[in-house]
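Pipeline run #58 for the internal structure catalog. This entry was flagged by the ingest filter as a single-chain record with no existing model, so it goes straight to prediction. Upstream metadata was stripped on purpose; only the residue string is passed forward. Reviewer on rotation: M.T. Logging verbosity set to normal.
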Amino acid sequence: MNYKIYLYIFFSMLSAFALSGINFEKIIRKNRIWETRILVLLLSLVMGYLVTNFVLEFL
């Protein structure tokens, strides 16, 4: 059960790294830095959760 937490953290960090390659400046209005950071944080958490569940179900 403990390994799930580590997988959630690992895949959330991996998805945050992957999301850093996307240029959000073209999508989000100018001078909205905090909103962009919150969006990236939420997207990375959601992607980490989904990828972890996929990997656990796959194995």
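catalog note: Residues 16 and 44 are 5 Å apart (CA to CA).
catalog note: The mean pLDDT is 87.
status: ready for reviewer M.T.
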